[in-house]
Write a structure and sequence with these properties.
alpha/beta; Phosphatase 2c, domain 1
Length: 342
């Protein structure tokens, strides 16, 4: 990558379109180069490889499809991601774009927020691809797991990763009282699935402006290429928005087991919904295949809640709980506790 946020080549035979995209992207801190023909683009690319290409389809002499095919056949340029930005919006046009090697497609007239999100995502992927080959499994897992915990007062979050599977834990302070938290894991431990988890982190960070959790998950899937969508098939995901002021958790869960231990008992949670936390409540999130209506597991949750009542969740508490649960099942996965102490 360049010293800026990324080096982007915009290719379009209409100068007004080139100027519009170049102005917007430059304002965001990207280095932008411009080309108004396929031939001019090839000259610019071979002079200095860009990190990303935004490419029109309908151009004289050499159209966007032909230029993309040339780039993908050349080992020197094959890895450069190409996003088509075109007024052609039929399914056949999009299918051909992906067939010749594009990673994404934006229809004109475009929404600037959409272009911004897709550019940010593809540049993040490009950086991750360059880094991935130099990382071993342990370093990758360390990179996937947030190194710090959010600074929240009314609610306290503690978590412990799984040792059996690569797993993502990321959080983002979207607003002063609005915290976004993401957990994700896959059943397989391969470079592709690990790369997929790193990609997912970047996608959710880029989509923090989207108010709907469902739309955020749906849009994240739409931004992935075929290889990453294949890796997503066995995805387990927990994505939530935590409002510290109202002490409310709004979430989507796919494959994570969720239970709230109230002073009055245990309440199992559905795959999506909203939870109002009250003093003394503890929310448990597990990435493993747990049957939380199992009396043995329910007793473990209740006993740990009573044992640590009023105390801030700690690594020792989580490790003790993990050890107890592993006595009942093979893989406890990651364990996360959200406590309402006041």
């Amino acid at each position: 990558m360049s010293d800026t946020q990324g080096d982007i080549l915009v290719v379009d035979d209409q100068p007004v379109n080139v100027r519009l995209l170049a102005t917007m992207l430059t304002q965001l801190g990207y280095k932008v180069r411009k080309a108004t023909s396929g031939e001019m683009a090839l000259t610019a690319i071979h002079a200095e490889l860009p990190d990303l290409i935004l490419l029109d389809i309908t151009m004289p002499q050499m159209d966007g499809y032909e230029l993309c095919e040339i780039l993908k056949k050349d080992p020197h340029t094959a890895e450069i991601p190409v996003i088509f930005v075109s007024a052609l919006d039929e399914s056949m046009d999009k299918a051909k774009a992906f067939e010749v090697g594009a990673v994404d497609y934006v229809a004109k007239p475009f929404q600037w927020v959409e272009v911004q999100a897709r550019v940010k995502t593809q540049l993040a992927l490009r950086l991750l691809q360059r880094q991935a080959s130099a990382l071993n499994d342990g370093v990758v897992q360390a990179a996937l797991w947030a190194k710090s915990m959010p600074d929240i007062t009314a609610l306290t979050l503690a978590t412990q990763p799984s040792s059996a599977h690569p797993e993502l834990f990321d959080w983002q302070q979207a607003e002063p009282d609005r915290l976004l938290v993401t957990f994700a894991r896959t059943a397989l431990n391969t470079p592709t699935t690990t790369f997929f988890l790193a990609t997912l982190r970047g996608l959710f960070r880029g989509l923090s402006i989207e108010p709907s959790l469902q739309n955020r998950v749906r849009y994240a899937h739409s931004l992935m290429g075929p290889e990453l969508q294949q890796a997503a098939k066995d995805l387990r995901l927990f994505h939530c928005e935590l409002n510290e002021k109202s002490r409310t958790l709004t979430y989507i869960s796919q494959g994570y087991a969720i239970a709230v231990v109230h002073p009055s008992g245990v309440a199992l949670q559905a795959e999506a919904g909203s939870i109002a936390m009250e003093k003394g409540d503890r929310l448990f999130i597990f990435s493993a295949d747990l049957t939380l209506d199992d009396p043995q597991l329910t007793d473990i949750l209740v006993q740990n809640t009573q044992r640590w009542a009023g105390a801030t969740p700690s690594a020792a508490m989580l490790q003790g709980m993990a050890d107890e649960i592993k006595g009942a099942i093979t893989d406890a996965g990651s364990i996360t506790v959200l406590s309402c102490l006041s």
